[in-house]
Amino acid sequence: MTTTTIDNTVSIYDRIGGFDTVDRLVETFYRNMDELPEARGIRAIHADDLGPTRAILKVYLAEWLGGPKDYSTQKGHPRLRMRHSHLRIGPAERDAWMLCMNGALDATIEDVGIREGLRENFAKLADWMRNDPDNAHDKRH
């Protein structure tokens, strides 16, 4: 897994305030998913109890941002597309996910440069997660 860092010495995880900020980011993300009408479709593909999903995302994001390697230790390689392959993820699901994440980023990440960098990286990840027939990542030339 590639971690996201600003430079070689200080991780984004540390720059944003560590696990406390990751925790707030994930909590805000899932609150957005529960509350935003535009997120109804993506919320419906999740379990009623988001507790386990929240916990996994917190550990994953902490590592992805350069924090403790607990996700890899517990679960191995993320294999995000494989782990989500049973779900239909198209443009609407991607856009709803990003709506929730963008709101969470705006509410929790104070540093504008870091926030915009994360927004860009999350957008790339969300688009890559699409498993619909029109996903350019899956087209063979």
UniProtKB/TrEMBL annotation:
Q: Which Pfam families match?
A: Bac_globin
Name this polypeptide is given: Globin
Upper classification of the organism: Bacteria, Pseudomonadati, Pseudomonadota, Alphaproteobacteria, Hyphomicrobiales
Indicate yes or no for the key word Transport: yes
Please list the GO terms describing molecular function: heme binding; metal ion binding; oxygen binding; oxygen carrier activity
Keywords for this protein: Heme, Iron, Metal-binding, Transport
* UniProt cross-references to InterPro entries, sorted A to Z: GlbO/GLB3-like, Globin-like_sf, Globin/Proto, Hemoglobin_trunc
Q: Give the family from UniProt.
A: Belongs to the truncated hemoglobin family. Group II subfamily.
